[in-house]
Amino acid sequence: MTILIKNGLVVSATGQAHHDVLVDGERIVAVLAPGSELALSAERGAERVIDASDKLVVPGGVDVHTHMELPIDDTLSASDTFETGTTAAAWGGTTTIIDFANHHVGIGVRESLDASFAAAEGECAIDYSFHQVLGGVDDAALKEMDVLVDEGITSFKLFMAYPGRLYTDDGQILRAMQTAANNGAMIMMHAENGIAIDLLAEQAIARGETDPINHGYVRRPELEAEATYRSVQLATVAEAPLYIVHLSSSHALEVVANARNAGKNVFAETCPQYLYLSLEEHLGQPGLAGAGYVCSTPLRSREHGHQADLWQGLRTNDLSVVATDHCPFCRNGQKDLGLDDFRAIPNGIGGVEHRMDLIYQGVVTGELTLSRWVELCSTTPARMFGLYGRKGVIEPGADADIVIYDPAATTTISVDTHHMNLDYSAFEGMTIDGKVDTVMSRGTVIVADDRFQGAKGHGIYYKRGLSQYLT
Ligand code: URP
Ligand code: ZN
Ligand code: ZN
Asked: Residue 40 has what pLDDT?
């Protein structure tokens, strides 16, 4: 089908201009000056014309950090399936996710990847790919890294936290980084000193400090900064690039900024929860309410100004990407497992549906330009993880993943209206200036007129190239 999107303000990472966008089948085939002979002829030939007057036309969002169906153990997994989570993502203007293949101690890397492929196959409403977790690095895992890069899995997440299941020690990290330096992969780091955190957590419980807020107290920002610094130094030694995931503290941000100022290939993402929510107001709520805000890295103190520093980092490009770390657990039957001991609360917040809206508020408040919004939510994520060209941009040849965004409409976030499989909203009651109006995924309109018009199975798996941020 040919579709012409006309009269919209097309926003890219480098600028904005009124253009008509012509889609043929799954791809964008032309970006045309409105009123031009070519645009008029495209309109005459189009099977469908969408009028985007007074609206923004932006590349579909690319969320490079999600955890659909993340298994915590044999009985507990994140509450969104690939179907529900990608459908919710579509509602929010995200048209591609990169999820994680969940390797951990005791299983093989390939086994974990096969399980992720099986879970996602035929289920996704939008396109998807996987990063590979390495929960422990041995000779077999290192060999597998090379094979996976050739197969289009070009990024690997390591954990300096969670001793026993996912943790890798410094020697393991260095070996993985050396391998990445050779094969061109990107190492993604969960940078928290898990050994120190577990000790502080044990001491807190022994003192009877069991409430959710203690999760935030023991996961101190210094321990995020220490691990961030250590991983930067290890990456320097290995001459490997490094991408810090879910950065939440001013302390870690300073480490990343210093590394970048020193010319290192170090990048970081943050997530909407760290920009909007805080340790005191949210994690500090008693019982189940606070448990809903347990995630790692944790929400940080507003008193100490972490949130403002992160917004600044987004402006200055010390933070390159906004992802969600979407990892939803319901209050009932999941978050409530840790009401007597914060260590047993499953870690994670759901937000895949709200990233584009929440970061658009940075445009509304003047923190970000329109182009920076697109760059943070779509273009840089695509470039960082080897999807650019097909994703993250509106130009001929790219996939027709397009969001028409209405800056004059408003959205109120609520559990009553969201589409995630989650019995609460971390952003309950927030009013957003702006609204996703229409979402197209590979040339198919999947959200319009306040209706989901897509289908599970529409989304296809993407092999990825190497990051464009490698030198
Ligand atoms: O709390 C979080 N972030 N849960 C998801 C797993 C991870 O570490 O990203
Ligand atoms: Zn993590
Ligand atoms: Zn995560």
From this structure: 97
